[in-house]
Amino acid sequence: MVDVVDLALRTGCVFVAFLVLPLVVGQTEHKVMAHMQSRLGPMYAGGFHGWAQLVADGVKFAQKEDVVPANADRRVFQLAPVLALVPYLVALVAIPLAPGLVGVDLETGLFFVIAVMGVGVLGSLMGGWASANKYSLLGAFRAAGQLLAYELPFVLAAASVAMAAGTLSLSGIVEAWRPWWLLWQLPGLFVFFVAGLAELHRPPFDMPVADAEIIFGPYTEYTGIRFALFLLAEYAGIVVLSALTTVLFLGGWRGPFDEWLGWLWTLLKVFAVAFVVIWVRVTFPRFRADQLQRLAWQLLVPVALVQLALTGVVAVAL
Amino acid sequence: MSVKELPGKGLARGLKVTFENLTRRAVTAQYPDVKPELPPRSRGVIALLEENCTVCMLCARECPCWCIYIDSHKETVPPSTPGGRERSHNVLDRFAIDFSLCMYCGICVEVCPFDALFWSPEFEYAATDIRDLTHEKDRLREWMWTVPPPPADDERAEPPKELAAAERAAARTSARSTRPDGVDRSEDVESPRES
C-alpha cells in the first residue's frame, strides 16, 4: 500500500513538474528574448509583466477549431502531437532532482532517457507524413536527416560521462561527479549541448520547422490544441535537455549545502542551461542543411570521439 | 573572415551583443499607459482662436489640400457718434478643418496674419466615422486649451529679428544722446524698422 501511494505521489510530482517547468521556460523565453531585442515582451496578461501570457495562449489554443485536412491520414495525424510530447514526460520520470527525489531510479537511467528521447522525432515524422502537404513532408525529412546526424554525437558524449562515472544510473553519475570533471568533460558538454539543441529543432538548428521557407514544416497543417501540444513538446524538450545536461555534466544536485538544498541546485542549474538555450536562439541565425550536416559530421562527431578517447585514457590512468 | 581569428570568436561576440542588450533598458514606448514625450512644436491638431479670426480667407486659399471650410456674412454696426458712418465687419459662421484631408503642412498656421490658428500637440482624435474628422469651429476652439506656450529659444540661437532691431535702435539712440555737443537729438531717431 505504501508503495502504491509513494509511486502515485512521485508520478504526480513529475506530472506537475512536466506541466509547470515548460511554461516557466516558455515565459522566460518570451521575456529574455524580448529584452535581448530591446523590447518588453508580454506586459498585460495576468497584470504583472504578462506572467499569464502562456496560460492565455493555452486558453486560446484550446478554443480553436481542431482541423484535420481532408487528405490527411486521420489517425496518424491526430496521434502525432501526443507521440511528440509523451517521450519527454517519460524521460522526466528518470531524471533525479536530489538524492531520492526521482520518479523512478533506474539502474540504466541514461540508456532509458536517451532511447526515449529518440522517439520524440517520430511525432514530427508522423505529422509530416500524415499531413498530405509537401512542406510538411519536406520538414519531416529534414527532421529525420537532422536526427540521424546529431543522435550519434549526442550518444557518444553521453557515453563519455557514463564511462567516466562507471555507471549508467543517472543518480550514480551525479554521485561520482567531481568538480574537475567540468574541465575533463568540457568537449563532451559542448557536443552534448549542441547536439541536444539540434535534436530539439531549436534555433539555430530549426531547419525542419523553418517558418520562413517551409512554413513550420511538419506542423503546417496543425491548429488549436494539437499545435499547442507540439509547442509544449518543444519546451518540455528544453527542460529535459537542460536537466540531462545538468545531471550528466554539471553535477546535478552537487553544490554547497547539498544535503538540504540539492533540489534547488538542480533547478538552478537547469534554468541556467535553459537560459543559455534561449540566449543561443536569440543570437544565431538558422543553419543551412549542408552547414548542419557539416557541423555534425566534421566537428561534433570527431570531438565526441576524441572526448571518448580522453575519458578512456584518464579513467584507466586513475 | 580572416584566418587569424580564433574559431568561434564571432559567435562569442554575437552572444556578447545579445547579453549586453539584456542588461540595457528596453526602448519600447508603453504608449496607452505612458503618454509619449513629444518634441516642442509637435504638429498634432490645428486649433482656432475664433476671436482673432477676421475671415480674411488666407488660410483657406493657401491650403494645398483644400481642407478648410469658411462661411461668413457681413454685419453693420451703427455709427458710434451721431452723424457718423456705419461700420461693417465680417462675422464667422462656419470654420471647419477636415483632418481626413489635412496633410499637416502647417501653411495655414504660418499664413494667418492675425494669430488665429495654432498647432496643438494633441493627436488622440481618431474617429470611427470619417465625417467625425471634420472639426467644426467649436471643436477647433476647444483645442486652443491644449496649445502650449511657445518653447524657449535655443541658448545659442540668434535673437529674434524684432529684438535685434529694437536693440540696434536703442544702441543708436544712446550713442547720439551722449554726443559731446549735448544737444538732445532723440526725437529724430528713426522708428526701429528692419532694413
UniProtKB/TrEMBL annotation, chain A:
<comment type="subunit">
    <text>NDH-1 is composed of 14 different subunits. Subunits NuoA, H, J, K, L, M, N constitute the membrane sector of the complex.</text>
</comment>
<keyword id="KW-0812">Transmembrane</keyword>
<dbReference type="Pfam" id="PF00146">
    <property type="entry name" value="NADHdh"/>
</dbReference>
<dbReference type="GO" id="GO:0016655">
    <property type="term" value="F:oxidoreductase activity, acting on NAD(P)H, quinone or similar compound as acceptor"/>
</dbReference>
<feature type="transmembrane region" description="Helical">
    <location>
        <begin position="262"/>
        <end position="284"/>
    </location>
</feature>
<keyword id="KW-1003">Cell membrane</keyword>
<dbReference type="GO" id="GO:0003954">
    <property type="term" value="F:NADH dehydrogenase activity"/>
</dbReference>
<keyword id="KW-1133">Transmembrane helix</keyword>
<comment type="function">
    <text>NDH-1 shuttles electrons from NADH, via FMN and iron-sulfur (Fe-S) centers, to quinones in the respiratory chain. The immediate electron acceptor for the enzyme in this species is believed to be ubiquinone. Couples the redox reaction to proton translocation (for every two electrons transferred, four hydrogen ions are translocated across the cytoplasmic membrane), and thus conserves the redox energy in a proton gradient. This subunit may bind ubiquinone.</text>
</comment>
<protein>
    <recommendedName>
        <fullName>NADH-quinone oxidoreductase subunit H</fullName>
        <ecNumber>7.1.1.-</ecNumber>
    </recommendedName>
</protein>
<feature type="transmembrane region" description="Helical">
    <location>
        <begin position="7"/>
        <end position="26"/>
    </location>
</feature>
<feature type="transmembrane region" description="Helical">
    <location>
        <begin position="180"/>
        <end position="198"/>
    </location>
</feature>
<feature type="transmembrane region" description="Helical">
    <location>
        <begin position="227"/>
        <end position="250"/>
    </location>
</feature>
<feature type="transmembrane region" description="Helical">
    <location>
        <begin position="152"/>
        <end position="174"/>
    </location>
</feature>
<feature type="transmembrane region" description="Helical">
    <location>
        <begin position="79"/>
        <end position="98"/>
    </location>
</feature>
<dbReference type="GO" id="GO:0048038">
    <property type="term" value="F:quinone binding"/>
</dbReference>
<keyword id="KW-0472">Membrane</keyword>
<keyword id="KW-1278">Translocase</keyword>
<keyword id="KW-0830">Ubiquinone</keyword>
<feature type="transmembrane region" description="Helical">
    <location>
        <begin position="296"/>
        <end position="317"/>
    </location>
</feature>
<feature type="transmembrane region" description="Helical">
    <location>
        <begin position="110"/>
        <end position="132"/>
    </location>
</feature>
<dbReference type="InterPro" id="IPR001694">
    <property type="entry name" value="NADH_UbQ_OxRdtase_su1/FPO"/>
</dbReference>
<keyword id="KW-0520">NAD</keyword>
<comment type="similarity">
    <text>Belongs to the complex I subunit 1 family.</text>
</comment>
<dbReference type="GO" id="GO:0005886">
    <property type="term" value="C:plasma membrane"/>
</dbReference>
<keyword id="KW-0874">Quinone</keyword>
<dbReference type="GO" id="GO:0009060">
    <property type="term" value="P:aerobic respiration"/>
</dbReference>
